[in-house]
Amino acid sequence: MFESTVVCNPLSRTKRLVFDYQRANFEHLRAHLQTLNLEEEIHEFSNIDQDWINWKNAFFAAVTEFVPVKNAKGRKFLPWMNNTILHLFKKKTHVKNKNQYFQISK
């Protein structure tokens, strides 16, 4: 007849950096933001978009200085699990739970 081989590569988890606010030093962050003159980042007759970018960069520079970051592991996403299938799974679970609730109450 014929032979077929299928090779599947394991899905890798996506890693991302997130702020760890539980270990943040808010007292030093607050003091640093009070000493930082954020009004210098905003110019009276300049582009508002550029002013926003300057202000945001100054603020996040202060946050990254006093709030540590940690690696957050993402879920393994299966390529065939799209939004429609996930919605149907949730719908099935809801109907199943509702059915169990009404069977108990009888």
How much helix is in the residues?
A: 40-55%
Distance between the termini: 57 Å
Tally of domains = 1
The global form is elongated
Give the C-alpha Rg: 25 Å
Give start-end ranges of low-pLDDT stretches: none
Strand arrangement within the widest β-sheet reads 1-2
| Content of β-strand | 5-15%
Element string (H = helix, E = strand):
EHHEH
Q: Largest sheet, described in full?
A: 2 strands, antiparallel
How many extended strands? 2
Average predicted confidence as pLDDT? 83
Helix/strand-derived category reads mainly alpha
Count of DSSP H/I helices: 3
Main attributes of the structure:
single chain, 106 residues, mainly alpha, 3 helices, 2 strands
Give a verbal description of the structure.
By secondary structure, the chain is mainly alpha-helical. The protein has one domain. It is 49% helix and 9% strand. The protein contains three helices and two strands. A two-stranded antiparallel sheet has the order 1-2. α1 runs antiparallel to α2. The protein starts with 14 loop residues before the first strand and ends with a helix.
Write a short abstract of this structure.
This protein has 106 residues and is mainly alpha-helical.
